[in-house]
Design the sequence.
C-alpha cells in the first residue's frame, strides 16, 4: 500500500486566505499592475523611530546570540508590567511567554491545552487562522455564528448552546478581525455567566492584538476584569507589537496566563522555534517602554481614525454594500450578498473578490474564509489616495453588476 507523501495533518491545513490574497496582490503589483490593496492586515507605517534606532544600535553593538526560550527577562518583565495595568491583575514575568508573533502564541496555546477530541469555540466571523490552528492541535473547531444586527458580537444564548464537557478553549477577539466589533462590559459579563455555569473548566483565550486601535469612543474592555472573579484565572490574554506599533515583520507576540500553560508552551517552543529573534525582542522592549513611542502611536491612530471615516463615507455610495461601523482594528466588513448568488453574475464572495482583484485591480479578502459568506473584508491600513481611488473603483465595478 502506498502512502501519501504528506501527513493527514498537513493535508487538512488550508493556506491562510489573508496572506494568499496579499501575496497575489503583490504578484500583480510586481508585474506592473496598479493594484489598490485593501487586503493587507498590517499597518502601512514605519515602526516608531526609537525602535528603529534601537535595532540598528543593537545589531552594531556585538554578537546576536540566541535569546532565552521563553523570552528575554527584560521583555517578559515589561510585558508583565504592561498587562498588569491593562487587566488589573498582577502578572509576574513567569506568567508571560514571548513568541514569534501573536499567531505563534495562539498556536502554542492550542497545542498546549488541547487533546484530540477537545473543542475550541470560535465566534464567527473569525480570523482565518483559528479553525486551522485548532485542527493542527487535533481539536474540533466549534463555530458560533453572530449577525450584523447583533453588532457582530457573539450572543450568550448562542454560546450557551455549544458549551459542554468537551469545551477546552473559548476564543474571544475584541476588537475583531474581520468585523472590528468590540465587546462591551455588559456583553462580557453576560458571556461570563454562561461560561461559569456551563464550562468553568474551559480556558478563555482573549486575542487582544487590536486592543489599542479603537475609535469613536469605544474602549477595550479587559475580559480578565469583566468575566468575573471565578473565571479570571482561566483567562489567557494574547497580545503583541505587530499592530499597535506597526511591527508586523519583527514577529513578536506574547501571552500571559497560568504558569503551567506558560511552561508547557515554552517546552513546545524549545523544540520547535527556540526563543523569538533576539533583535526583535530588543525592539519590542523599546516599543513598550520608550517614552517617545506613545506620541507616534497616537499619530498612527489619528490616521486610522481619518481613514475609517473615509471608507465608511465611500461605502455609503457603493450600491448593495452595507457595513456596521467598526469599533476598532483597521477593517470594515462589508455585506455584498446582493451581488452574489445563483442569479447574480458571481456565485459567491470568493468569485466576486477574485473578479475585483483580477479585472478591476482592487484587492479585498472574501468573507467565506472568515466564516461569513456574502461579505468582503476591506483593510483601511493604506494611504488616503489608495482608499479614495479604490472605493471609486469598487463603486463603479459593483454598479456595473446586475443585482440579484
Ligand atoms: N490575531 C489576529 C486577530 C490577527 O488579525 C493577527 C494578524 N496577523 C494576529 C493575531 C497575529 O499577529 P502577529 O502574529 O503578527 O502578532
Ligand atoms: N492578521 C492579518 C490579516 O488578517 C495578517 C495576515 C495573517 O496573519 O492572517 O490580514
Sequence:
Amino acid at each position: 500500500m502506498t502512502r501519501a507523501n504528506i501527513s493527514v495533518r498537513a493535508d487538512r491545513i488550508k493556506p491562510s486566505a489573508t496572506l494568499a490574497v496579499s501575496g497575489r496582490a503583490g504578484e500583480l503589483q510586481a508585474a506592473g499592475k496598479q493594484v489598490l490593496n485593501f487586503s493587507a492586515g498590517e499597518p502601512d507605517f514605519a515602526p516608531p523611530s526609537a525602535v528603529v534606532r534601537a535595532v540598528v544600535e543593537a545589531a552594531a553593538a556585538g554578537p546576536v546570540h540566541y535569546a532565552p526560550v521563553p523570552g528575554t527577562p527584560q521583555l517578559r518583565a515589561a510585558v508583565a508590567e504592561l498587562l498588569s495595568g491593562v487587566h488589573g491583575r498582577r502578572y509576574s514575568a513567569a506568567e508571560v511567554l514571548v513568541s514569534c508573533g501573536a499567531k505563534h502564541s495562539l498556536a502554542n496555546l492550542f497545542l498546549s491545552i488541547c487533546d484530540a477530541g477537545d473543542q475550541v469555540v470560535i465566534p464567527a466571523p473569525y480570523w482565518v487562522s483559528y479553525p486551522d490552528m485548532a485542527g493542527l492541535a487535533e481539536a474540533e473547531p466549534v463555530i458560533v455564528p453572530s449577525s450584523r444586527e447583533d453588532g457582530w458580537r457573539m450572543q450568550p444564548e448562542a454560546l450557551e448552546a455549544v458549551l459542554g464537557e468537551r469545551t477546552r478553549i473559548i476564543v474571544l477577539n475584541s476588537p475583531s478581525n474581520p468585523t472590528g466589533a468590540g465587546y462591551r462590559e455588559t456583553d462580557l459579563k453576560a458571556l461570563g455567566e454562561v461560561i461559569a455555569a456551563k464550562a468553568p473548566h474551559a480556558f478563555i483565550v482573549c486575542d487582544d492584538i487590536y486592543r489599542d486601535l479603537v475609535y469613536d469612543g469605544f474602549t477595550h474592555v479587559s475580559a480578565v476584569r469583566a468575566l468575573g472573579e471565578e473565571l479570571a484565572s482561566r483567562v489567557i490574554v494574547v497580545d503583541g507589537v505587530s499592530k499597535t506599533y506597526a511591527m508586523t515583520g519583527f514577529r513578536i507576540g506574547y501571552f500571559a496566563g497560568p504558569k503551567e500553560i506558560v511552561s508547557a508552551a515554552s517546552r513546545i517552543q524549545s523544540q520547535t522555534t527556540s526563543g523569538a529573534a533576539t533583535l526583535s525582542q530588543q525592539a519590542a522592549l523599546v516599543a513598550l517602554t520608550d517614552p517617545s513611542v506613545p506620541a507616534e502611536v497616537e499619530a498612527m491612530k489619528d490616521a486610522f481614525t481619518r481613514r475609517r471615516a473615509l471608507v465608511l463615507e465611500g461605502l455609503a455610495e457603493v450600491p448593495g454594500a452595507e457595513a456596521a461601523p467598526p469599533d476598532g482594528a483597521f477593517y470594515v466588513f462589508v455585506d455584498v450578498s446582493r451581488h452574489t448568488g445563483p442569479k447574480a453574475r458571481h456565485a459567491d464572495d470568493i468569485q466576486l473578490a477574485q473578479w475585483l482583484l483580477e479585472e478591476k485591480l482592487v484587492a479585498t479578502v472574501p468573507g467565506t474564509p472568515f466564516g461569513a459568506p456574502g461579505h468582503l473584508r476591506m483593510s483601511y491600513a493604506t494611504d488616503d489616495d489608495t482608499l479614495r481611488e479604490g472605493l471609486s473603483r469598487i463603486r463603479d465595478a459593483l454598479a456595473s453588476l446586475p443585482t440579484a
Notes: The chain has a mean pLDDT of 96. The radius of gyration is 21 Å. Residues 293-316 form the longest helix (24 residues). The chain has 15 helices and 13 strands.
